[in-house]
Prior knowledge:
The protein folds into 2 domains: 2-168, Rossmann fold, CATH 3.40.50; 171-290, Orthogonal Bundle (N-(1-d-carboxylethyl)-l-norvaline Dehydrogenase, domain 2). 45% of the residues lie in helices and 21% in strands. It is built from 11 helices and 12 strands. It has helices spanning 10-20, 32-40, 76-83, 100-107, 148-159, 170-191, 201-220, 227-240, 247-253, 264-270, 276-290; strands at residues 2-6, 24-28, 42-46, 50-52, 55-57, 63-69, 87-93, 112-117, 120-125, 128-133, 137-141, 164-166. The strands form 2 sheets. It has an 8-stranded mixed sheet, sandwiched between helices. Strands 4-3-10-9 form a 4-stranded mixed sheet. Strand 7 (87-93), helix 4 (100-107) and strand 8 form a beta-alpha-beta unit. Helix 3 (76-83) packs parallel to helix 4 (100-107), helix 6 (170-191) runs antiparallel to helix 7 (201-220) and helix 10 (264-270) packs across helix 11. The termini are far apart. The site of pantoate (PAF) has 12 residues, from helix 6. Belongs to the ketopantoate reductase family.
Amino acid sequence: xxxxxxxxxxxxxxxxxxxxxxxxxTLVGRDPxxxxxxxxxxxxxxxxxxRVSPAARTDIPDSADLALVAVKSxxxxxxxxxxxxxxxxxxxxxxxxxGNEERLADALACPxxxxxxxxxARLEAPGTVAFTGRGEVVxxxxxxxRSAVADRVGEAVATAGVETTVxxxxxxxxxxxxxxxxxxxxxxxxxxxxxxxxAAGAGGSLAADAARETARVARERGVDLADERAVSLTREVVxxxxxxRSSMLQDVAAGRRTEIDAINGYVVRAAAQAxxxxxxxxxxxxxxxxxxxxx
Length: 295
Ligand code: PAF
């Protein structure tokens, strides 16, 4: 299968590297990392160590069987516009935050699948990505239910040795992932701690409060997500990724723009009632951004 992995950040590079062991992968990005991959191949180190040679380029190819979108949520609109000219059979978003699939589906003629990914990755140097934790890719039709396209894409991803589940309840899965990201990302970014610092204590209870608020907003929107489930999922991810720096902490540490608007900011916008924890986390991250060039 020809897979265009759009977004050569840490997650896109790791998934691109894993998929390239089995498929014809084109990694699309715009940083020196992509030039290096194009010249010397991609080195994956950590949980598994290997080198692969995917094609790497800065523009979207004319066609692909699958576009796997791994860009930051604030870039989804521009990527959707570029993908509109690409001849695709399917598109899969594995991005953080909410609303990405809708933006892609508005622009594309092919089926757009929703996905979540809990693999841990960190860009070490141009051409090198650290594989910091094995996780799972969960994917399926964005409106829920089954589809032949989702089954085919799930099989292709699984064939490359990536832990994969094809799910029939993606709307709930996306809210579950949002609850975890709302609990973990801003909290770890603001406190400058690894995910494991949220296992207990003040950080743990702040994260649990953010997860509970997110679950309440999910229920307001008709998604069956209990507070206890949102909190226990958050605890699981904190335990399984204890030594990882969340993507938002990596962004803040590098002085880059964050995905706050698609995570805690989304919860605030979607809420019918007050969500003070998510609101405060959003305002604090925006305060940080306003004091830097990262806004
Ligand atoms: O954004 C992230 O960092 C990840 O989605 C997660 C699951 C919170 C683990 O760090």
